[in-house]
Amino acid sequence: MSLLPDRIQPLNDKGVQEGARYVLYWMEQSQRAQHNPALERALHHASETGLPLLVVCGVTDDFPEATLRHHTFLLEGLQETKQRLADRGLKLVVREGAPDDVALAHAGAAAVLVTDRGYLRHQKQWRARVAEEAPCRVEQVEGDVVVPVETVTDKAEYAARTIRPKIHEHLERCLQLPEPVPVETPSLDLDIDSGRSLDDIAAVTDQMDLDRGVGAVSDLYPGGVSEAEAILDDFLAEHLDGYDENRNQIHSHAVSHMSKYLHYGQISPVWLAQQVRRAEGPESDIESYIEELVVRRELTMNHVHFRPDTYDSYTCLPEWARESLAEHADDEREYVYSLDELEGGTTHDPYWNAAMKEMRETGYMHNYMRMYWGKKILEWSPDPKTAYDRTLRLNNRYFLDGRDPNSFANVAWVFGLHDRGWKERPVYGKVRYMSQGGLDRKADPDAYVEKVDRLATVAQSA
């Protein structure tokens, strides 16, 4: 199927550059060789111009919370992507440097430059600079949401209930994958420096300025589309049936682990939705998964896109939440912990400590525990603004899927974003409260602690 027009956006009004050597795909967000609308759009331009397609990707350590964990996972994915592109006759050049610098370093000889889409502030700034300075036409092609954000709405949505019908209005026509475009002129032999070898990922990360206190977790969650496909196959076979009922059971394995692969663009959300819809399982479980993948995830994209200046700050919270939290900022707190105590998981609460251990040692935390974890940071910090900053810092440092729209929106949810006012309480004000007693009633936290200990042992032995 041809690309959905909604996905294609010109970023400048320049034309096709004459005398060019290649069409350029600047791969930044959609780091994959399959089900990638930006890649197929670039191949379309290559076919029209009769030129080869060159793919480039910049990898930088000049980024907040750049850790060995994040970069190892990213490079594991790019290692496989490079091979899959080569299987199609396409050359991928990976260079260390700011992504926009790497793109512009190769734009001078490009007839057309195509890139994928990212919603965060720095990603928009990178694309704006490239569009302004490149000597050729620059196009952006959406490949990391099911329904493009502007197709859904033209404003920041209040909650899932307000965005859900707008997404469903377009869902079926957007659940289409692009047809692979034949590679007419291979680029593997292009006389272009191949950049950084990915044969030895440790050799690459050894030369980067990374936070090595957050180690790789490749024995638990390796990067790459093949790993994602294998994990998904297991989930669909063993855990989709009963997903709606079990997904909040923190001791269970009824989770797909796809968020980290979506975060690095190693899989397509459209492909993922199609795989789930085709699986054998109760309709209620399938629809519950689609709700999380499409409605809930794309609400977070809406959040960062329409709040570009505030999505990662306390000021993004709704006025009612900020006012209510301010009224209770000086309330007496039964427990107050330092950031070091929180990070080390040395609180009085064994379940919270286990959640922090899961996050710290594995790069993952069950989503229901993420909510409980965040609520307790609000409760145990000296004031709500400090709690917000701590929650975001820990989230972005340790989670494999940290530092993305889901992270920013989900942290803000702890403090009232995309929610409503509840019964007023000390410290929380009208912001939703979660208790250890509620955890005991709804889940099996002791079994969760045992599960975390087993996973941490695997991670620590790597």
TrEMBL record:
<dbReference type="InterPro" id="IPR036155">
    <property type="entry name" value="Crypto/Photolyase_N_sf"/>
</dbReference>
<dbReference type="InterPro" id="IPR052219">
    <property type="entry name" value="Photolyase_Class-2"/>
</dbReference>
<keyword id="KW-0456">Lyase</keyword>
<dbReference type="GO" id="GO:0003904">
    <property type="term" value="F:deoxyribodipyrimidine photo-lyase activity"/>
</dbReference>
<dbReference type="GO" id="GO:0003677">
    <property type="term" value="F:DNA binding"/>
</dbReference>
<dbReference type="InterPro" id="IPR006050">
    <property type="entry name" value="DNA_photolyase_N"/>
</dbReference>
<dbReference type="InterPro" id="IPR014729">
    <property type="entry name" value="Rossmann-like_a/b/a_fold"/>
</dbReference>
<feature type="domain" description="Photolyase/cryptochrome alpha/beta">
    <location>
        <begin position="21"/>
        <end position="149"/>
    </location>
</feature>
<keyword id="KW-0238">DNA-binding</keyword>
<dbReference type="GO" id="GO:0000719">
    <property type="term" value="P:photoreactive repair"/>
</dbReference>
<dbReference type="Pfam" id="PF00875">
    <property type="entry name" value="DNA_photolyase"/>
</dbReference>
<keyword id="KW-0234">DNA repair</keyword>
<protein>
    <recommendedName>
        <fullName>Deoxyribodipyrimidine photo-lyase</fullName>
        <ecNumber>4.1.99.3</ecNumber>
    </recommendedName>
</protein>
<keyword id="KW-0285">Flavoprotein</keyword>
<keyword id="KW-0274">FAD</keyword>
<keyword id="KW-0227">DNA damage</keyword>
<dbReference type="InterPro" id="IPR036134">
    <property type="entry name" value="Crypto/Photolyase_FAD-like_sf"/>
</dbReference>
<comment type="similarity">
    <text>Belongs to the DNA photolyase class-2 family.</text>
</comment>
